[in-house]
C-alpha cells in the first residue's frame, strides 16, 4: 500500500508536466485528474473493512476505539518522534519537488534540465523504495534503518545549499537528486511501518493516516514559507534565487535528526506486532 502511493506520485510527476506545456492547459489537467480520481474514490466504498482471515496473529488483536487510540498516540513518545520527523521530511520533500524548477532557474539551468533532475529523483527513489521495502520486510530492522536513513535525508537537503548555489555542474545536481530520492522514498515505508509497530493495538489506519496528513500539511506550510524566503526578482545573486529557503530547509532537517536517535529509548516496546506474531507463531 505504501508503494502504491509512491508509484502514484511518480506517475503524476512525470505525466502532469507533459500535459501542461502551457499555463492555459492547467485547468485541463485538473479536469483529467478529477475524471480519473472520481470513479476510483467511489470504488473504495466496496473495499471491506478487514480481510476475511487475519494476515497474522497480531491482526486478531482488538483495536482501540477512535478516541482511545488518539489518546494512546498522544502518550506514545516514540510515535510523537516519528510524527514530527515524518511531517518535516515529507513536508520538505513535497515542497522541494514542487519548487525544483523555480529553484534551478535563477542559476541558468533550463526547464528540461530541471525535469531531468526531478525525474532522476523520482525514478531512483521509486526503485530504491521497492528494493528497501523487500529488505525491511525480511530483516525487520526498523530502528537501525531509521537511525541511518534520516541523517542521509537531512544531509541531502543540507547539501542542496552548496549543490545549487555554489556548483555549476548539472551532473552533481542530478547525482544529489538521486541520493535524496533514494533516501527520502525509502523513509516512507520505514516510518509508516515503524509507526504501526510502536502503536499497536492502535488501528494502523489511524496512525498512518495522521502521518500522511501531517506530511501534506507541513508540505503546504513549507511551500508557502520557502516562496516567502525567495529573493525578489531584482535582488540576490543571482536575482530571485532560493538560497535562504534552502538554508531554512537544510537547517530544520538537520535539527530533526536527533529525533530518530531517541526512538525506542523511552522504555516502551517498539516491535509490538512482531512480538505477538513470533509468540503465537
Automatic annotation (TrEMBL):
- Give this protein's Gene Ontology molecular function annotations: transmembrane transporter activity
- Primary subcellular site in the record, as a coarse category: membrane
Q: Where in the cell is it found?
A: Membrane
Q: Where are the transmembrane segments?
A: 77-96, 116-136, 148-166, 172-196, 208-229, 241-263
Tell me where on the tree of life, at the top rank, the source sits: Eukaryota
Q: Which UniProt keywords apply?
A: Membrane, Transmembrane, Transmembrane helix
Membrane topology category: Multi-pass membrane protein
Name the Pfam families for this protein: MFS_1
Q: Which GO terms describe its cellular component?
A: membrane
Spell out the protein name for this chain: Major facilitator superfamily domain-containing protein 7-a
Q: Which organism is it from?
A: Neolecta irregularis (strain DAH-3)
Amino acid at each position: 500500500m505504501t508503494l502504491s502511493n509512491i508509484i502514484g506520485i511518480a506517475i503524476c510527476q512525470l505525466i502532469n508536466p507533459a500535459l501542461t506545456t502551457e499555463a492555459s492547459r492547467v485547468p485541463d489537467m485538473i479536469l483529467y485528474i478529477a475524471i480519473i480520481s472520481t470513479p476510483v474514490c467511489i470504488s473504495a466504498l466496496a473495499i471491506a473493512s478487514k480481510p476475511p482471515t487475519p494476515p497474522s496473529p497480531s491482526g486478531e488483536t482488538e483495536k482501540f476505539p477512535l478516541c482511545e487510540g488518539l489518546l494512546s498516540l498522544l502518550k506514545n513518545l516514540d510515535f510523537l518522534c516519528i510524527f514530527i520527523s515524518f511531517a518535516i521530511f515529507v513536508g520538505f520533500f513535497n515542497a522541494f519537488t514542487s519548487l525544483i524548477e523555480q529553484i534551478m532557474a535563477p542559476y541558468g539551468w533550463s526547464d528540461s534540465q530541471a525535469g531531468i533532475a526531478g525525474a532522476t529523483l523520482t525514478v531512483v527513489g521509486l526503485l530504491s523504495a521497492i528494493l528497501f521495502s523487500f529488505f525491511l520486510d525480511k530483516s525487520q530492522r526498523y530502528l537501525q534503518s531509521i537511525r541511518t536513513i534520516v541523517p542521509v535525508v537531512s544531509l541531502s537537503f543540507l547539501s542542496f545549499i552548496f549543490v545549487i548555489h555554489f556548483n555549476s555542474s548539472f551532473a552533481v545536481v542530478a547525482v544529489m537528486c538521486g541520493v535524496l530520492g533514494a533516501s527520502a522514498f525509502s523513509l516512507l515505508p520505514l516510518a509508516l511501518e515503524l509507526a504501526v509497530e510502536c502503536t499497536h493495538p492502535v488501528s494502523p489506519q489511524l496512525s498512518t493516516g495522521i502521518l500522511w496528513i501531517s506530511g501534506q500539511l507541513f508540505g503546504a506550510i513549507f511551500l508557502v514559507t520557502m516562496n516567502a524566503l525567495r529573493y525578489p526578482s531584482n535582488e540576490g545573486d543571482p536575482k530571485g534565487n532560493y538560497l535562504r529557503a534552502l538554508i531554512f530547509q537544510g537547517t530544520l532537517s538537520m535539527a530533526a535528526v536527533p529525533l530518530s536517535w531517541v526512538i525506542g529509548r523511552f522504555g516502551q516496546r517498539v516491535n509490538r506486532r512482531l512480538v505477538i506474531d513470533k509468540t503465537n507463531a
